[in-house]
Design brief:
Length: about 250
């Protein structure tokens, strides 16, 4: 029996098989769909090549870094802040169209990226589209090779976003907004995690999650739903025989 089955029974919520819809690209026979800047992430699109700046639109680089600084409680001692900042700079350099002028920035980016990976164990490839106010709690064993990660996502250590199988090299996850990822979680393959999901510690997600899902286990099973960002009310505790006798006494 899967680990999470008792949790589903305890919560009184049936495991959901409801898929969610990911935007699809219109394709023409024999023609590979082209990625354009700012388009919604799609599993039908080829993997991003990292040939243009994919930092969030509508905010400048300095303002974006300042927002990240506030997200990390204004602490320069947070490894997650430096990993995110390096990712922002890795994307911003692609705004320099001439390769010769961009080359020194690329050298600096790759040196810092490698140092962060070796020292703190945080790997965010710059062609992973990263939203705003993403918070990485703690560090170590973090590989975030998703197609995209939304806004206000919180991620904890020993987390992997990436391939399920080497036979599907383009099968990478899409993470929605305000997703909370627990310690040791893995999100693998061409899955879409909807907005406001909560993924429990050491869970393995290999199928789409509807918005607001709370999942746990291997493979991850749905145990509850959030409603408008508020946790479901706790079930009333059964009244003991002693308290019933006292009330009728």
């Amino acid at each position: 029996m899967p680990i999470a089955a008792p949790l589903s029974e305890f919560a009184g919520v049936a495991v959901s098989d409801t898929p969610i819809i990911t935007p699809k690209l219109q394709t023409v026979a024999g023609v590979e769909p082209k990625i354009e800047k700012g388009q919604p992430p799609s599993h039908d699109a080829p993997l991003p090549k990292g040939d243009f700046n994919e930092n969030p639109q509508g905010i400048g680089l300095l303002a974006l870094l300042a927002e990240d600084y506030r997200t990390y409680d204004r602490s320069l001692l947070e490894p997650g802040f430096w990993a995110v900042a390096t990712h922002r700079l890795g994307n911003a350099r692609m705004g320099v169209r001439f390769k010769l002028l961009r080359a020194p920035l690329t050298v600096v980016y790759r040196l810092v990226f490698t140092a962060i990976m070796w020292v703190w164990g945080i790997n965010i490839p710059y062609n992973t589209k990263l939203g705003r106010r993403v918070r990485i709690w703690h560090h170590g064993g973090i590989w975030l090779g998703a197609r995209s990660i939304g806004d206000d996502v919180h991620i904890r250590h020993n987390t992997t976003f990436g391939l399920l199988s080497r036979r599907e090299p383009s099968g990478k996850p899409i993470i929605g907004n305000r997703v909370d990822v627990g310690v040791g979680a893995c999100i693998l393959g061409a899955v879409t995690v909807g907005d406001d999901c909560v993924i429990g510690p050491n869970s393995v997600v290999i199928r789409d999650l509807s918005p607001g899902s709370v999942v746990m286990g291997v493979p991850a099973r749905q145990t509850a739903f959030w409603k408008d960002g508020v946790a479901p009310p706790a079930e009333p505790k059964p009244e003991s025989s002693t308290s019933r006798d006292a009330s009728h006494g």
